[in-house]
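Suppose a colleague, Dr. K., hands you the sequence of a protein chain of 229 amino acids and asks what its three-dimensional shape might be. Before reaching for any lab equipment, you can write down a predicted structure in C-alpha cell form. Begin with the sequence itself:
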Amino acid sequence: MPTITIHHNANIFQWPTPNAIFQPRSLVLGSFNPHNPNRENVDYYYGRPTNHFWKSVAQIRGLPDNTFLGIGTLPIKLSIMHKQFCCLDIIDSIKLTCDDGNVLNHFIQTKIFSGFNDSIIFRNQTQHLGTIIYINRIYNNSILNTLNTSPTIDSIIHTMGTKRLWGKPGVWNWRNPSPADLNNFMTPIKNMNNIKFINLSFSPSGYAINNGSTPLQSLNTWMQKYLHL
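The predicted structure, expressed as C-alpha cells, is then:
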C-alpha cells in the first residue's frame, strides 16, 4: 500500500527554535506547515501571504501589513519576537497511506500543497475520489522540552480556533470528535506547572478571516494581549 510522508518546513529548513528567541513569554502553537518540494516555501510559521498572523502583528505595531511577509523578513520577525513570544507547531510530519498511488498523489497536490485546510490532517482517514486515505500524525515532542527548560515562558496559546465550543473553558480543540492521539499529546502540555494554557483561540488563517469566523479586530485584540505586543 503506497505511503507518502510529508515533513514540516521547520525541519527541512531548520527554522529558528524557541531557544533562539530572547526571553519569550508566550509559546504560540499552530498545527502543521507542509513542505512542498516543488515550489518556494515560507521561511517561518504563519508565513503564507494568505495568513493574517504577521499582518496583525504589523497592524498592532502600526507598520505596513507586508512588513513581516516574504522571504528575507525572518530577521525582523525574530527581532519583534524577543521578550514577547515564540512559535512551534504540534505536528512534525504526516504519513498518508492509500491503496491507489495516483489518488494519493492527487490528494496531496490538491488538499495539502494547494488550498491546505488543517482540519483534514486531524482526521484518521478521509475519502478522496472515492478512495480512503489513512492519516497518521507524528507529533512534535520538542514542545514539552521547550516548556520544561524555558525560564521565561509563562503562557501557551494556540491558533487552531475555538469556533464550535466558544466560551467553554477547558476545551482546547473545537474539532468534534478530536482524535485520541491529539488529546493524549496535548494533555501534558495543558497541565504544565506554572504555565497557563489559554483556551480561547482565534485562527489567523485567510479562510477564517474571509468567512467571518475570525473577526479581524478580535484577532488583533487577542494577539496584542497574549503576545504582549
